[in-house]
Automatic annotation (TrEMBL):
UniProt-listed PROSITE patterns: GATASE_TYPE_1
Protein name, entry field: Glutamine amidotransferase class-I
Keywords: Glutamine amidotransferase, Transferase
Coiled coil residues, start to end: none
Source organism phylogeny: Bacteria, Bacillati, Cyanobacteriota, Cyanophyceae, Synechococcales
Record domain Glutamine amidotransferase: where: 26-189
Organism: Prochlorococcus marinus (strain MIT 9303)
One Gene Ontology cellular component annotation held by this UniProt entry: cytosol
SUPFAM superfamilies: Class I glutamine amidotransferase-like (SSF52317)
Molecular function via GO: transferase activity
């Protein structure tokens, strides 16, 4: 049974559908709460690693409040070096890019351009670079996903962009044969998003204005259920790329 180590940074950002899918297919999921002081794993061949999101970022790497971020970068570099299957979501995707020699900068929007987060449901579409990727059968048509980030990823030259959004090019990418970064969220269910809305008010209002909570609740009701089958298919296709013996 393949161990899938899941690095979680705060209570509200859980593995959600990632964990459900992995367990349904017989993988052994171990969630590690680094914010609660739980130690990161020592990886060996045959393991898998999933790093989730959080409000912290690459700019917080050397801050005393997040001492585990530096260790996460080292762990991701180990996964890349030893070709251990890896998925990074939001913060996890940013750490993957950083670990491979890339970076992060504020996402700009508006006229004139200014730092402006991408928050809410919006489609991603596959790129020409993704044409030969089997997992991109899930993206032959645009797919509505949840965005919740204020930065954009500066990818290293070794990365391949697989899907983009109107606001941000670097949405789904691959580095090497077995490492994928997702700037967006496939994994969240309604209860998760409603909690994010309640607990992240300043962030969402900075992106969408004072009616942000109402806008996001309306979007959730409109897009979550309708997109769920295709989001699950993309998740399954991604896992099939990384752990074919289970899928």
């Amino acid at each position: 049974m393949t161990p899938l180590f899941v690095v979680q940074h705060l209570e509200r950002e859980t593995p959600g559908l990632f964990q459900d899918l992995a367990q349904q297919h017989g993988m052994a999921v171990q969630v590690i709460r680094v914010d609660l002081g739980e130690p990161l794993p020592s990886l060996v061949k045959g393991d898998g690693l999933l790093v989730l999101g959080g409000p912290m970022g690459v700019a917080d790497l050397y801050k005393p409040a997040f001492p585990w971020l530096e260790d996460e970068v080292l762990l991701i570099q180990q996964a890349l070096e030893h070709q251990i299957p890896f998925v990074g979501v939001c913060l996890g995707a940013q750490l993957l890019a950083h670990a491979a020699g890339g970076g992060v900068e504020p996402l700009l929007g508006g006229d004139p351009p200014r730092p402006l987060a991408e928050v809410g449901w919006a489609p991603i579409t596959s790129t020409l670079e993704a044409a030969n990727q089997s997992l991109i059968t899930s993206l032959m048509q645009p797919l509505d996903v949840l965005h919740w980030h204020g930065d954009r990823i500066i990818l290293p030259e070794t990365a391949n962009v697989l899907a983009t959004s109107v606001r941000c090019r670097e949405q789904l990418f691959r580095i090497g044969p077995l490492a994928y970064g997702l700037q967006f969220h496939l994994e969240v269910e309604d209860q998760d998003v409603f909690r994010w809305i309640a607990e992240d008010n300043d962030f969402i209002c900075g992106a969408l204005g004072e009616n942000a909570a109402d806008i996001l609740r309306d979007q959730q009701r409109l897009y979550s259920s309708s997109s769920r089958p295709r989001r699950l298919k993309l998740l399954a296709d991604l896992f099939r790329e990384l752990w074919p013996s289970y899928f």
